[in-house]
Amino acid sequence: MKKTAVVILAAGKGQRMRSQLPKVLHQLNGRPMLGYVAAAAEAAGVSQTLVVVGHGCEQVEAAFPQFNFALQQPQLGTGHALQCAMPQVAADCENVLVVCGDTPLLTAETLSALMHSFEQTGSTATVLSARVPNPYGYGRIVRNLNGEVRAIVEERDASEEEKRICEINTGAYCFEAVSLREALQQLTTDNAQGEYYLTDVIGILAALGKTVTSYLCADAAETAGVNDRVQLADAAAELRRR
């Protein structure tokens, strides 16, 4: 397998946690949330761990001195976060795995399977998707008539037809580094939130005729993000059950 860098998106403030502590430093069973995400990626076989920080960056960097960091300031969206990170991705890392710092239930097995699917299919990008009964709030995986991934459309930008799609974006991806850099340069803020969406990279690559695929996560619960204290407690309980 080609060398892969993981970029962990961890710049958010996490206002719903109602805490001055950066969201990714909230603990589950005595370990910061970010620690679980990084450990899963490293066990999956990445060569470099790069964390995008913003809110409380000094605290996050002090808690994880072993990682490389990229500062996102101001925070202009997930696409902007990758733009901040890519200059620090090691030159010998041909692939880039992207994961969210608030998904502590993601397993090394799932990330390894995502990376393996990406290479086996010869894709330029592979998104980790999941099927859920209620997709409200999530980006939808939009396909063409041949079943190929054409775009990821966010809830606020989705048509009524697109909102009925139950296959969602989990926020984890594997990219070919060279193509990712090129696509990031084409991002615009022409969307409902006025941000640089990382999800738009998928549509850009598909429009260029690149091979864009998805890997369906068998257990959608594994991809759940932690946004408040209730979800934090639920995730901690699941980790104890494991």
Describe it.
The mean pLDDT is about 95. This protein has helices spanning about 35-45, 55-65, 80-85, 110-120, 160-165, 175-185, 200-205, 230-240; strands at about 5-10, 25-30, 30, 50-55, 70, 95-100, 125-130, 140-145, 150-155, 165-175, 210-215. The protein starts with a strand and ends with a helix. The protein is α/β, with parallel strands linked by helices. The strands form 3 sheets. Strands 5-4-1-6-10-7-11 form a 7-stranded mixed beta sheet, sandwiched between helices. Strands 2-3 form a two-stranded antiparallel sheet. A two-stranded antiparallel ribbon has the order 8-9. Helix 1 (about 35-45) crosses helix 4. It has a single domain (about 5-240), classed as Spore Coat Polysaccharide Biosynthesis Protein SpsA, Chain A (Alpha-Beta Complex).
Briefly summarize what is shown.
Helix content is 31%, strand content 24%. With 242 residues, the chain is α/β, with parallel strands linked by helices.
